[in-house]
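FORM 7B: Structural annotation worksheet

SECTION A. Query
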Amino acid sequence: MRKPDPEAMDGPPSAGVCAEGNGSDRNNRFLAADMEDVVTIRKIRPEDEPAVTELHRRHYWRSNCLLLNRNFYRWQLLLPPESAAAGGDQSVVAVDKRGQLLSFLAVAPASAVFRARPMKGAHLISWLSPPEARGRGIGSAVISSVIDQYDFVFGRSPRPASLSIFKRLGFRCLVSCRRWLAVLDPEAAVRLAVDANGASAKRAAARKIDIRGAAEGRIDRTVPPAAASLATEVLTDSTAFERTHDYLGWRYEMHPFFDYRFLSINGSREPTGFAVVRIEDVSGRSGRVLRIIEFIAAPQNSLSLANAVLSYGSEQQCAYADMFGVSERFVSGFLAAGGFDAAEEPELRLPHLLQPWDPSIEMPDLIFYARRDDRLAGGIGPADDMSLVHVSKGDTNLDWPSWVPTADGNSFAPKVERA
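SECTION B. Predicted structure
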């Protein structure tokens, strides 16, 4: 059974929504479905923060909540370059006429492109409402307010109650993100496998990567000077969130908990390819895994980048490497180097939840909203051709620290107090 993911609410479409103001300052007011209260949808304000904190303490459905960690909340929602430029947190709240919080949608704006044309994009990070606010049409109004402001919106793992809202409002839902793997050490990989048996050992041995003769990549803690321009060049004909220098610096240099590395080929000043990686020591079992968060290279340099990345993973004594995405167009070099789609090897089930080790191999569902302009691209919209959509583990909350306490009982996410 698929594990549920970020909290959301259900409800019928709201009627009679009217807008006041424009852009991020817009307030939407409507009469809730129960006809008892006027609800205002607006950008979060500093005075909302105590109520947002209390909402997560009382009603977050997991045992621990990352957004209750103030350092993490600040990094995720106040410090992204476009949030900071707009004055801070761009999340959306719904409140009643008394100011009581009815819904909180965490939003992180991020510039995007579709075939080199700029789009106003956003990541949906988390959505939470108290039980008494659900089923009143508020959910539809909250999401409508966001897609009124953005051209391209991306989120993950809607719960069943919220999925109907997303679909009704024009979102596409992909059932499970794709995951690609490469076996670096077969014996170590089998020790981490869900089924540590003869069949998985046989498939791990067959899938072992031969990395002899791979060019060595340059490792940096900071963004390579030309990384952003290379990303623009590589992603120009796709649908993607932009990898600007400021974005890469915020996402990978400023993360409050993870320690990322930039790996470049052909030097860091004028790289022909770069990846962002981190080494993850598994909690609860013995082993290490190379997580590939970004993988940026033109097709002619993709194999060289893959070989350098996998060579680094082998040097770091990792059992296997993995990366997430939608389209194989952007990871062709990884596959040419011997990587494979996880679905191709049903007998070799290698988990991706490692803090602590978790036998579940279910991948998150992905949701996309893209505004279509029938005057452009022959009427083909940014999310109509998924082979053009570039998504990495660095987008939205696909590479969050675990909310589950590790094997030693530690967690970055404070414990939730149930109502």
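SECTION C. Observations
The first strand starts at residue 18 and ends at 20. Residues 1-24 have pLDDT under 50 and may be disordered.

SECTION D. Sign-off
Analyst initials: ____
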